[in-house]
Amino acid sequence: MILLKKRLFILLTLFTVITFSSFGQDPHFSQFYANPLYLNPAFTGTINCPRFSILFRDQWPAIKNNFITSSISYDQYIYELHGGIGVLATADIQGGGIFQTYNAGIIYNFRAKVSDRFNLQFALQGNYLYNSINLDRLVLASDLLNPQSTTDVPKELYSNVIKSQFDAGFGMIGYTPYLFFGLAIHHLLPLQLSYLRTTGNKFEKIWEPKWTAHVGGKITISQKFRDENNVGDIFLYPTIVFQSQGNFNYMHEGFYFNFYPFTIGAWVRHNFKNMDAFILSFGVEYKIFKIGYSYDFNLTKLEGTGGAHEVSLQFIIPCNKDRMSKNAQKRSARFPSVECPSF
After folding, report:
1. Which ranges constitute the DSSP H helices of 44-202?
2. Cα separation of 271 and 24, whole Å?
């Protein structure tokens, strides 16, 4: 009975808000660096070799019609283009399919060498946003207060509504062998989707720009060989990620402890008033393969959600330097990969 009341409270709150307008918040992933192109497009091509990344997030599984988000990306550095290229696609399903948002984009990243130990990367991202709302299944607050208001409306007026728009983003990162930092801006173009039902109910969804700032470092505790990781090497990666979008502002502070090939991570997520979640992650990597799992422990007053499960997979195709031109081999030596966590 208590769980039923909680679900009803969540639904009533949601339906009351969307009767007028809502500000779209991009889905977030707890394993930031397992989905680097989503965090910051400037991470495109940062490991030089081709990389595939796949993520799946199940948020609030204890509540019916929860949030399901998935992402897939590919990126690599192309020496002849003096930069990296990447593609990123995400799918966000809410309310059991009532709200569906799909996003696909391409990224170009330019790399600049400032000094022997400091590099900068700048990226431009173009996206195509596809948004779908099933009005047939959408119940607004006015419908709950006056059930008869929808009985005289033909069923076809509540059909699935599809709208799409173009979008753009920008990112930059700077890095040394021991420190990295970055800034990303998503939704540079105005995004606004409006729907008007014949009953007078208006639904309006607005995506405001999302700002992401992150900084982290690599502390080598023990390493057998300087240029490669081996079993037993120990590293510590302290990191901070700040994200702001509309009325949503979140700070993430934590660390990754890597005892190669194993990695554990611990994070706290909060705004400037309340704690939101404690995040625990675990990952295993070996040569070209990486797999990670994380769980978000809810720290808010909303109980019985089931937290959030997240699984990540990464595949890295080794570079064949023998097939590179001499100029490409020289650029590969000049621009090392970014030393940041991978989960």
Report:
1. 141-145
2. 18
Residue 185, phi then psi, degrees to nearest 5? -130, 120
| Tokens matching residue 159 | 């059909």
327 DSSP 8-state letter: H
Q: What domains lie within the chain, and their CATH numbers?
A: 2-334 (2.40.160.40)
Within 13 A of 255's CA, how many CA atoms are on the CB side?
A: 9
pLDDT (tens place) for every residue of the chain, 343 residues total: 444 444 444 444 444 333 444 556 788 899 999 999 999 999 999 888 999 999 999 999 998 888 999 999 999 998 888 889 999 999 999 888 888 899 999 999 998 889 888 999 999 999 998 888 776 666 655 555 555 554 444 444 445 567 788 999 999 999 998 999 999 999 998 777 665 554 555 566 677 899 999 999 999 999 988 777 889 999 999 999 999 998 889 999 999 999 999 999 999 999 988 999 999 999 999 888 999 999 999 998 888 889 999 999 999 998 866 555 555 555 555 566 788 888 8
Between the CA of residue 156 and those of 153, 203, 253, what are the distances in Å? Answer: 8, 17, 49
Contacts (Cβ under 8 Å, ≥6 apart) of 79: 324, 325, 327, 328, 331, 332
**Can you tell me the distance from the alpha carbon of 131 to that of 294, in angstroms, rounded to the nearest whole number?**
28
Q: Rounded to two decimals, what is the model's pTM?
A: 0.84
What gap in Å lies between CA 119 and CA 334, rounded to an integer?
10
CA dist., res. 23 & res. 196, Å (int):
17
Hey, is 190 helix, strand or coil?
Answer: coil
Largest CA distance in the chain: 75
Q: Is 220 helix (H, G, I), strand (E, B) or coil?
A: strand
